């Protein structure tokens, strides 16, 4: 395109993830860059704990009630919807503010987008980003950029291997690598 480089969403995300220390740290940098690019008001990066199949929040931005979203069972309706959705991006409108997911966007999330960024693991996703906006229009505008961002994120995170790791093991992954 003829747009200046500063408007290249993928370029901004690539720049943020150029140093790959550990899966968790890279996920954090990735999340920060994605939030900037798509102007989300909040976000959570989730990893699946292979021992419990629960989702664990590895990194959050703009979340007021962390306790509501820190550990999420695989039976959560949104998680099930993400798992059965064929595309990489699932958009959800939050019509009930008492839902767990309304805790995003400083307790005022009205629109969410889930972005699958991990390889499917036995039919279930193993990591994803959940983004929140107060405005449904903002979320719709961002949705066009998410598939490309998701493809790039999967490439980056695939470099950390497919072996099952619990989130607490991921933290220690980089220690002893000499990087």
Strand content is: 15-25%
Radius of gyration: 16 Å
Shape, per Cα inertia axes: globular
The ordered string of helix (H) and strand (E) elements is HHEEHEHEHEEEEHHH
Overall pLDDT, averaged? 77
The secondary-structure class comes to alpha+beta
What does the model show?
Residues 1-6 and 162-179 have low confidence and may be disordered. This protein has helices at residues 9-16, 23-38, 66-69, 77-84, 104-107, 136-143, 146-158, 167-171, and strands spanning 42-48, 55-61, 71-72, 89-93, 111-116, 120-121, 124-125, 127-133. The protein is globular. The chain has 179 residues and is of the alpha+beta class. Strands 3-2-1-8-5-4 form a 6-stranded antiparallel beta sheet, with helices on both faces.
Features:
disordered N terminus, alpha+beta, six-stranded antiparallel β-sheet, 37% helix, disordered C terminus
Protein topology:
Layout: H1 9-16, H2 23-38, E1 42-48, E2 55-61, H3 66-69, E3 71-72, H4 77-84, E4 89-93, H5 104-107, E5 111-116, E6 120-121, E7 124-125, E8 127-133, H6 136-143, H7 146-158, H8 167-171
Antiparallel strand pairs: 1-2, 1-8, 2-3, 4-5, 5-8, 6-7
Helix pairs in contact: 1-2, 2-7
Summarize the model shown.
The protein is an alpha+beta fold and 179 residues long. It has helices spanning 9-16, 23-38, 66-69, 77-84, 104-107, 136-143, 146-158, 167-171, and strands spanning 42-48, 55-61, 71-72, 89-93, 111-116, 120-121, 124-125, 127-133.
